[in-house]
Amino acid sequence: MKDILAAPFMTEMIRTATAMYDHGWDERNGGNISLMLDEKEAGEYLDMHSVLRTIPTGFSMPELDGKIFLVTGTGKYFRNIQYEPEVNLGIIRLRGCGQQADLLWGYSDGGQFTSEFPAHMMSHSARLKVNPANRVIMHCHPANLLAMTYVHTLDEREFTRTLWQMCTECVVVFPDGVNVLPWMLCGTNEIGEATAEKMKTARLVVWSQHGIYGAGKDLDETFGLIETAEKAAEIYMKIAHLPRINTITDEQMHLLEKRFGIKAREGYLEEPDRGTDK
Ligand code: 2HA
Ligand code: ZN
């Protein structure tokens, strides 16, 4: 059996959680990540028949039966993941219509997966239907995106357009835009279901006055997605109180669409022949 602490999925997870902490996105026990593992790859590092204990999930998701996830632990600090991965992370396999999670590794102090496990698993299910290559759901509390939800309309088209206007590459990195949930109680199946519904049409979902969810095919892509949206929100928070005398126009965004071979979300940009709006 190979050393699991040297597995690429483990080193990448630790590297990513540490970078997120270093960016200030995951204060105290804030934030959580789940990474779907390939069964064959995980089998090189784990005895797949040895179940340490079984944890009830509190929801039913038959479509995820047999799927294996590396998940951050509840109450655990991202800051500490690099020092004690086996305490702060766990690997679980779902079964029994997703109602049971068999622990295969980790949570070694008796802990369990993140309180946002329902939102993660429901979002995995939603994103896999849109993109079978999706592997990552990531949640964190980046300051500027959060700040923006206090002063900007939560209308999804307007929120997205503002972010696209803040950096030239935004529309290229997230052409599907950003969906937005109003404030909701976190850690519940209800916010999980609402997040998954929003994940059907975008890889980024803002939780107002709380944080953001991102989805992607790997940790790098998902981190980069949140990083780009947060950079745009930072610029917005630097200029929101000042008169805006220049911006990126819809016409320019259409040029970006052509240059990078992407298509901005339907109806989010004015069509070229109808001129541009703000
Ligand atoms: O796990 O971020 O939303 C801590 C959180 C809950
Ligand atoms: Zn949170």
TrEMBL record:
Top-level taxon in the UniProt lineage: Bacteria
Name the UniProt record assigns to this protein: Rhamnulose-1-phosphate aldolase
Record organism: Aristaeella lactis
